[in-house]
Amino acid sequence: MNVNLCLYCVVFKIPWRAKFCMKEILQEDYRYFVVLSVVCYTQIRQSTIGIIAYFTLNSTLVMTFPYLLTQLHPATVHFPIALLSLASSAGLLYLYWQARPALVVLTWWPMFLGWLGATVAILTGLLAQSGLPPTAPYRTVLNWHISTGLALFVVYGVLLYQRWVYNSVRVRKARTRRGIDSRELLEDARAKGWLSLLLLIGLVLIVASGWNGGKLVYEWGVNVAP
Question: What is the pTM of this model?
């Protein structure tokens, strides 16, 4: 991660201390591309390495398309974890630190991409667990993993929907008639409370879902080849 960020510092002519301080990276609006690019590149690299390693270890298996779908879940979870965590963190920084335009972009675009990634992760996860025994001793952990995953999908879906409604023509005209000049949901003081709550709940659900997913793999060895 540090090597990748150092390369970006050179390419974008960002001061060397930027790799140690997020505040320095966000000093100018264009620099949010650096943060988002590093996050996406790191997750893509990690997922690609995981896929290659898995197929190398299981090269004797007949890789049919349905089989591949049931094995893709571990490679897809990194994207929503990274992107949705970034979105919640940026949103909370905007609300309680500094109202920078870069943080608005770092909130909504990673949230949208992470929500799409969560859709793929949920679908592949449901396929992966479809063949597991219903009376397995890890079923409680699995149910919590599924429940928290679905819950975070709903939470971030609600946030994206509320922002879409807020920016719709009808709602903008209604705000204008009431004399409200806010053009961004994060800027609306009336929404600060429930936005903060949903962003925090989203972070907690990400940690809970990832924690239970890790327990399934590292403690119970679920869907891990012997």
Answer: 0.74
